[in-house]
């Protein structure tokens, strides 16, 4: 039976969990994730775990933050004045927003704190700094 290797396109079902057991994503009710090993479209630790798997095989792996969503960078936290927020927007803690940079690029941010005078936005990936556990089942190699 074939084993997944670099260059193969694979389909996997997976469940991602945090250290406390909280599930942050499961593909169980969705189509399996499809990617080509070696293209770098998934986090490095996830991609490496699939290498060598056979269709129908399952495994559980722990991916440290450096090989998952990266470290949490304090310099990516921005406190802005409430006067910089559009008047029709009432941000809530935990809400995901998009901010536009001067060069036109948008960056997803999470609202982490709100006061009368300011709003704190975090541009880190929501799972940055977290070690994550993945239950992976390889469905298909093509």
Draw up the topology in text.
Blueprint: E1 9-18, E2 23-26, E3 33-36, H1 44-50, E4 58-63, E5 77-81, E6 96-100, E7 106-114, E8 118-122, E9 132-141
Antiparallel strand pairs: 1-2, 1-3, 1-9, 4-9, 5-8, 6-7, 7-8
List low-confidence stretches.
none
Give the helix/strand class.
Answer: mainly beta
Taking all Cα atoms into account, the compactness measure Rg is: 19 Å
Count of individual beta strands: 9
Q: What order do the SSEs take from the amino end to the carboxyl end, as H and E?
A: EEEHEEEEEE
Based on the coordinates given, report the CATH architecture of the largest domain.
Answer: Roll
How big a fraction of the residues is strand? 35-45%
Overall form: elongated
Share of helix, binned: under 10%
Number of domains: 2
Report the CATH C-level class of the largest domain. Alpha Beta
The CA-CA distance between the termini, in Å, is 13 Å
CATH topology-level name of the largest domain: Chitinase A, domain 3
Largest sheet: 5 strands, antiparallel
Tally of individual helices: 1
**For the residues shown, what is the average pLDDT?**
95
Structure at a glance:
By secondary structure, the chain is mainly β.
